[in-house]
Target: tRNA threonylcarbamoyladenosine biosynthesis protein TsaE
Amino acid sequence: MSGEIYLPDAAATEALGRSLASVLRAGDVVLLSGSLGMGKTSFARGVLSALGLAGEAPSPTFAIIQPYAPPEVRLPVVHADLYRIEDASELEELGLDDALYDSALLVEWPERVPASYWRDPLRLAFANAPAGGRALTWDASAAWKRRWRPT
Model:
């Protein structure tokens, strides 16, 4: 199942992220694609806010991995930014596979590694919309089809 949704501003992007938080569970993979400034981190901030994170979540651009765990959030989440990854072999060092046992993954720049690396992801691609704002194209794998219904 796939579709497209219009997001007029950062507030709408964060609100959509908050709506995803209600169905997010350990083992989930959410892939956030799009060029710089398209809303990937805003979406992740919405998810983390709805999971209980107080304050603003930092972008993991330089840290690459930003983990969140209870009681900071109600569900363990790993927010990853793979922009600086040059080879898929570097992912082993980051421990993303291990994180899937008890955490959800929010992954920015997933295209930096082969698509086959990701198991049953929800793929979200952010782009400029012709009338301003952002166009979000989404593709839900079988694991997401009954849970992800953006409005």
